[in-house]
Design a protein that fits this description.
mainly alpha, sensory transduction, 10 helices, 309 residues, Rhopdopsin 7-helix transmembrane proteins, receptor, G protein-coupled receptor activity, G-protein coupled receptor
């Protein structure tokens, strides 16, 4: 239950107060958002229509693309709309909803990336048992577990925040509602909640990152016993995964593994992991994955031939 407070809306300062720069940013972010939606939709459709992309890795990749579309949609449209107006506001309820969705989808993506690393570990280190261990039933439950973990993480953040009294001021020096900026506006001592946020968000990101790095180190070591062709294919796949992990986890660890303070770099870092990363994921996975590129070419050629007939 939400605590009674005097704040019905928050004022977002956004990325910049320069109107000319805001117009440039609007054009860039519009292109980025379109690229994010189209790129991830292309991956989802390709995997769903292709008969060759039926391994657990692509099953997880399709869900990762699904999450990326909605993850970017939570912040990008609001950011672009605010770039066109002078007074940038968001209702209290809208702010809390945005907070919940950002953490739900962000944490779900963290768990999905961890599941994908586990999948690669089994595929490369235990190939004879791969189909038995990573069967369709297990993969489905792993996706459910990712969403459940994301929900539990997000609901804790949201409930802690909504229990705080907000009596003013109501100006958020950010372009979306997140835990740290909101804690700074609360009319109460937020030290304990700040510690919980660091443990819940920062330590979770760091722990998953360490687990991922250890798993990929084990994978790389085990590749010494593989054939040259198998080694190159596995390296290409792992390189894509590691790249995504670094560009996603780096900003998250920087932002959440510290007390509730703000830095001038926070908004730039937030743009990177809320807008750039969902756009880069499809590019990284397609440009370095011959199977996905071949499936896209085949799907495109089938559509072209069908139209010609």
């Amino acid at each position: 239950m939400w605590v009674d407070n005097n704040v019905s809306e928050f004022i977002l300062l956004g990325l910049t107060q320069n109107q000319e720069l805001e117009q440039v940013c609007f054009g860039l972010f519009l292109l980025f958002y379109i690229a994010t939606v189209l790129g991830n939709l292309t991956i989802i459709v390709t995997i769903q229509r292709s008969q060759t992309l039926n391994s657990p890795m692509y099953f997880f990749l399709s869900y990762l693309s699904f999450v990326d579309i909605f993850y970017a949609s939570v912040t990008a449209p609001k950011l672009m709309a605010d770039l066109l107006v002078e007074r940038k506001t968001i209702s209290f309820h809208g702010c809390i909803a945005q907070l919940f969705l950002v953490h739900l989808l962000g944490c779900t993506e963290i768990f999905l990336l961890t599941m994908m690393a586990y999948d690669r570990y089994i595929a490369i280190c235990k190939p004879l048992h791969y189909t038995t261990i990573m069967n369709k039933h297990v993969c489905s439950w792993m996706v459910v577990a990712s969403w459940t973990g994301g929900f539990l993480h997000s609901i804790v953040q949201t409930l802690l925040t909504t229990q705080l009294p907000f009596c003013g001021p109501n100006v958020i020096d950010h372009f979306f509602c997140d835990v740290h900026p909101l804690l700074q506006l609360a009319c109460a001592d937020t030290y304990i909640i700040g510690i919980v946020v660091v443990a819940n968000s920062g330590m979770l990101s760091l722990l998953c990152f360490v687990v991922l790095m250890i798993s990929y180190i084990v994978i790389l070591v085990s590749l010494r016993t593989h054939t040259s062709e198998g080694r190159l294919k596995a390296l290409s796949t792992c390189a894509s995964h590691i790249t995504v992990v670094l560009i996603f986890f780096g900003p998250c660890i920087f932002f959440y593994l510290r007390p509730s303070t703000t830095f001038s770099e926070d908004k730039t870092v937030a743009v990177f992991y809320t807008i750039f990363t969902p756009m880069l994921n499809p590019l990284i996975y397609t440009l370095r994955n011959e199977d996905v590129k071949n499936a896209m070419r085949k799907l495109w050629s089938i559509k072209v031939n069908f139209r010609e007939k």
